Amino acid sequence: PLMADKMVSDMIINTEKQLSSVSFDYIPSHKILDMMYRLKTGDLVAFTSRKNGLDIHHVGWIILINDQPHILHASQSGKVVEVSNKNIYNFVKSSLQTDGIMVFRFKSR
């Protein structure tokens, strides 16, 4: 129904306006090497975009392999869910569209 569509559309517009007024911190790509030892398995990582008007272009989960943080993600090139063969620093360094990361850690109850 048209009314329900309009209500959903208005909710989305209002939510986007609220989010646009909030700033989020990110870790620039050149600082990832210095802080990557603090990442833990289960952290959610959002890859920030160099593209104007696009904040985040990809997401994944941290998986520690030999104490190195790697990404469990849906690979755009491989079209499969995989664990990256590069640690997060090298993963970001090899991406032309990424200028940093945002990290989200969920609290356990």
Can you describe what's shown?
With 109 residues, this protein is α+β, with helices and mostly antiparallel strands. Helices cover 27% and strands 32% of the residues. It contains 3 helices and 6 strands. β2 and β3 form a beta hairpin. The model has no long low-confidence stretch (mean pLDDT 90).
Furnish the topology, listing elements before pairings.
Elements: H1 2-20, E1 27-28, H2 32-35, E2 44-49, E3 56-65, E4 68-74, E5 81-83, H3 88-93, E6 98-104
Antiparallel strand pairs: 1-6, 2-3, 2-6, 3-4, 4-5
- Give the helix level as a range of percent: 25-40%
Order of helices and strands: HEHEEEEHE
Instruction: List the strand order in the largest sheet.
Output: 1-6-2-3-4-5
Radius of gyration over all CA atoms, rounded: 17 Å
| Straight-line N-to-C gap | 40 Å
Number of strands: 6
Given as residue ranges, the uncertain stretches (5+ residues, pLDDT < 50) are none
Return the average pLDDT rounded to an integer: 90
Judged by helices, strands and strand pairing, the structural class is: alpha+beta
Shape: elongated
Q: Specify the biggest β-sheet.
A: 6 strands, antiparallel
The number of distinct helices, counting runs of at least 4 residues, comes to 3
Beta-strand fraction estimate = 25-35%
